[in-house]
Amino acid sequence: MRSRAAAFGLLPFAVYVVLFLAVPTLIAIGTGFFDTTGAFTLATVAALGDPVVLTTFFNSFWLSALTAVVGAVVGALVCYALLGTRLDGALRSTVDSLSGVLAQFGGVMLAFAFVATIGIQGMVTVYLRDTFGLDIFENGVWLYSTTGLILPYIYFQVPLMIITFMPALQALKPQWAEANATLGGTTASYWLRIAFPVLAPSFLGSLLLLFANAFSSYATAAALVSQGSQIVPLQIRAALTSETLLGRENLAGALALGMIVVMAVVMVGYSALQSRAARWQQ
Predict the structure, then answer these.
(1) Secondary structure of 87-153 as H, E, C letters
(2) Contact partners, residue 110, CB within 8 Å, separation at least 6
(3) pLDDT < 50 stretches in the chain
(4) Residue 193 DSSP code
(5) How many C-beta atoms lie closer than 10 Å to residue 248's C-beta?
(6) Are the C-beta atoms of residues 224 and 113 closer than 8 Å to each other?
(7) What is the pLDDT of residue 72?
(8) Is 65 helix (H, G, I), strand (E, B) or coil?
(9) Is the Cα dihedral 143, 149, 150, 154 positive or negative?
(10) Which of 99, 165, 193, 236 has the fewest CB atoms lying closer than 10 Å?
(11) What is the CATH number of the domain that holds 219?
């Protein structure tokens, strides 16, 4: 009876997974391997080898990797700095609360915040230009290109790293540091031989999570980048809405299939690293 009640309690989550994960995945696979008439074809998937498509995947890779690395390093340093604070202290509570909010602060709101701050007529841009004669767009308006997505992505990557990596740092047992000191070890030897090896799976797992988070982000890029389709999510939008790609709507399914493959590989790696990290957090 209890097992039936538990299964019934999982029903809403199961419906959510089916509607928003399983069904879109099947649609992406179906549109990638079948044409508009329903006939099986490999032509759409073969379009993934097009130089334009490969360029968009490359742009998504380097943008996701760069923001993930920067976000992971900065977030890990913040977590390390917070180790010396009280768990129930005002500073820790404030950082935890802000991280939870800012990690989800994306899309049009984040794009507008950056446009209002460092846009062509943004507050900071105008102040720097009028006060110091410094024009941050002297060599071109980079904010509305792929390069301009770096700062907004880092903005929500760092809080996400704090949320995911802080539990791993808190799981470091004081007894390990005490044993290291008792055996004549130094602080450097503790971090190099004990802490870093223990934290490595959690750090790499968080890094992969940040990569997946940036790789799949759409709304912020769509709001900032108005010209062209420099990353995969924007290329999918173009395949669905552009008048120059009429008759090739199924290309969006092939692009989505490519993203699913990348995300699946990343999530498998993340799951494996988390399983390894869990052994030290018990």
Answers:
(1) CCCHHHHHHHHHHHHHCCCCHHHHHHHHHHHHCCCCHHHHHHHHHHCCCCCCCCCHHHCCHHHHHHH
(2) 152, 155, 156, 220, 223
(3) none
(4) I
(5) 16
(6) no
(7) 96
(8) helix
(9) positive
(10) 193
(11) 1.10.3720.10
Residue 192 to residue 112: CA distance in whole angstroms:
43
Residue type present at position 98? L
Instruction: State the pLDDT at residue 228.
Output: 67
pLDDT attached to residue 245: 55
Q: What is the pLDDT of residues 239-277, one digit of tens each?
A: 877 655 555 667 788 888 888 888 889 988 888 887 877
pLDDT of amino acid 78: 94
- Find out whether 69 and 180 touch, Cβ atoms under 8 Å: no
Contact 109, 224 (CB under 8 A): no
CA distance 256 to 244: 19
- Number of compact structural domains in the chain: 1
> Domain containing 76: what range?
2-278
In the three-class reduction of DSSP (H, G, I as helix; E, B as strand; rest coil), residue 39 is classed as coil
Query: What pLDDT is attached to residue 23?
Result: 85
What is the rounded distance in angstroms from the CA atom of residue 173 to the CA atom of residue 210? Answer: 26
> b or e along 67-103 (b: 16 or more beta carbons within 10 Å of the residue's beta carbon)?
bbebbbeebbebbeebeeeeeeeeeeeebbeebeebb
Quick one: CA dihedral 227, 230, 236, 240, positive or negative? positive
Q: Residue 104 is encoded by which pair of tokens?
A: 């989800």
What is the pTM (predicted TM-score) of this model?
0.87
Residues in the chain: 282
Do 64 and 216 meet the contact criterion of CB atoms below 8 Å apart?
A: no
Distance linking the first and last C-alpha atoms of the chain: 31
